[in-house]
Specification:
By secondary structure, this protein is mostly helical. The chain has 8 helices and no strands. Helix 3 runs antiparallel to helix 4. The longest helix is centred in the C-terminal third of the chain and has 9 residues. The relative contact order is 0.13.
């Protein structure tokens, strides 16, 4: 599933999700990335939709540096994926990575549209710059 998610192979992901013994939260050995994280990183919107609609998929699972799939969608500036994920009940839109960077911070250098979308959401926590000045 990891390879299919990287490639954007929607049909293979659909087939694999039908198998109940498949772990859709399987982590890649080196990075700790999951199929959902790869789909967000590579901007495969249809795969993100498919995976998030499967109750077994946990969007809060992080890679080795603490980044979630939503963090990567924001960093990549993929407005369609961010719009789809932002109101999903299982998605933590404020989860910091291991360096203290939130999805909002990650989006600042990529997409004004994503930054504006995040700032318009009442659940988004504002950036506390004090912790970066230490």
């Amino acid at each position: 599933m990891l390879a299919a998610s990287k490639r954007g192979d929607l049909k293979e992901i659909q087939s694999l999700l039908q198998q109940k013994d498949i772990d859709p939260n399987e982590k890649e050995i080196h990075s700790g990335s999951t199929p959902l994280l790869f789909a967000c990183f590579h901007c495969h919107f249809e795969i993100v939709q498919l995976l998030l609609n499967d109750d077994r998929v946990d969007p809060k699972v992080t890679n080795q540096i603490g980044r979630t799939p939503f963090w990567w969608a924001c960093r990549k500036g993929d407005i369609d994926i961010v719009k789809f994920m932002i109101d999903h009940p299982k998605v933590d839109i404020n989860k910091e990575d291991n360096n203290g960077w939130t999805p909002l911070i990650a989006s600042c250098s990529r997409s004004l549209e994503v930054v504006e979308l995040l700032l318009a959401n009442r659940r988004i926590k504002r950036i506390n710059f004090e912790k970066f000045n230490k």
